[in-house]
Write a structure and sequence with these properties.
The complex is a heterodimer of chains A (159) and B (181). Chain A has 159 residues and is an all-alpha fold. In chain A, 69% of the residues lie in helices and 0% in strands. Chain A is elongated, with a radius of gyration of 32 Å. Chain B is elongated and about 80 Å long. The chains are: A mainly alpha (159), B alpha/beta (181). Chain B: Belongs to the thioredoxin family. DsbE subfamily.
């Protein structure tokens, strides 16, 4: 009799545990909010697109990864616009119109960002110019003095 | 001279670092400049907090400048901003429109009851849909809209007495001058 009771109690317990586990699953599912994608290609496109967009609340996270409230809203917006048949460029433009170029992880090439895109190249060119000038100067000044004037060589070695 | 050259290079880098530090104290890195400034405010039609059946739209607000202040009872910085609004709202010269953002109406009402209500009108955006059109990404935010429905100024973050004096009031003064002639 008691054995049956414990078995029953055990069964109820495990049923409860199972139920809890199911609920835990539901909670988790809600946290990542699965969107009703029509097919796998659409889901891949969505993932790719949201990865290129910045979450404005936590600015070093993209829309795909962020769990911020606004990111969730914007993901929903992106999803619905995809459903409405808009292409990636249109969806990006929609967000840029509201949140400026800052939402894009890749800044577009335009007059305002020329310095950003080509600045490193300018610095490289400046460095190359300095190197060329120095090498020319040294080869001109150093060639006759190389063997005779050891003091000047020492001076250059200092730094 | 050649010996000192690296030292000058070092000084230049120190100056650059100093400039960077100074720049960061002057500018909020989180602030995203709104592309909506000097552009027409997005069309909206939102219910009011007091009477959810009444909707206020952009069209119904045309003709007079107003200041929209995005707030929510869950927003901590809004609580910091609130006393400033309480004391300054009546001296702004434009109506202060509350924009209750992603908030439960009951909690918003309780919050206003507790801290006071500086708004002449409160519109409710529970889903935060219209807020996306406004480019809202964090409360509190404030938008100065002119009589033609164009956004003229935006403040991201709390309005402080200093910001009101230095930025908001001059912007309102410009609007007042435009109306007179």
């Amino acid at each position: 009799m008691t054995g049956r009771k414990t078995l029953l109690a055990f069964r109820t317990q495990s049923a409860l545990l199972l139920l809890l586990m199911l609920f835990a699953g539901a909670l988790f599912a809600q946290a990542i909010e699965p969107l009703p994608f029509k097919n796998h290609t659409e889901e891949v496109r969505f993932q790719h697109l949201t990865r290129e967009l910045r979450c404005l609340v936590c600015q070093n996270e993209n829309l795909a990864d962020s769990n911020a409230d606004l990111a969730r809203d914007l993901r929903r917006e992106v999803f619905e616009q995809m459903q409405a048949g808009k292409n990636d460029a249109q969806i990006k433009q929609y967000l840029v119109d509201r949140y400026s170029d800052f939402v894009l992880y890749d800044p577009p090439v335009k007059p305002g960002t020329w310095l950003l895109w080509f600045g490193p190249l300018l610095i490289l060119l400046a460095g190359a110019t300095v190197v060329v000038i120095t090498v020319r100067k040294r080869s001109r000044a150093g060639a006759p003095a190389e063997s005779t004037d050891s003091a000047s060589i020492n001076e250059e070695d200092d730094w | 001279m050649n010996r000192l050259l690296p030292f000058f290079g070092f000084l230049l880098l120190v100056a650059l670092l100093g400039f960077g530090i100074w720049w960061n104290t002057q500018h909020d890195q989180r602030e995203v400049p709104s592309p909506l400034i000097n552009k027409p405010a997005p069309a909206f039609a939102l219910p009011t907090l007091d009477a959810p059946d009444n909707t206020v739209s952009k069209a119904s607000m045309l003709g007079k400048p107003y200041l929209i202040n995005v707030f929510a009872s869950w927003c901590v910085a809004c609580g910091e901003e609130h006393p400033v609004l309480m004391s300054e709202a009546s001296q702004l010269g434009v109506p202060l429109v509350g924009y209750n953002y992603k908030d439960a109406p009951d909690e918003a009402k309780a919050w206003l009851e507790k801290h006071g209500n500086p708004y002449s009108l409160i519109i409710v955006d529970r889903e935060g849909r219209t807020a996306i059109d406004f480019g809202v990404y964090g409360a509190p935010e404030s938008f100065l809209v002119d009589s033609k429905g164009v956004i003229r100024y935006k403040r991201i973050g709390p309005l402080t007495p200093a910001v009101i004096e230095k930025e908001l009031k001059p912007a309102i003064a410009v609007l007042a001058k435009e109306v007179q002639p």
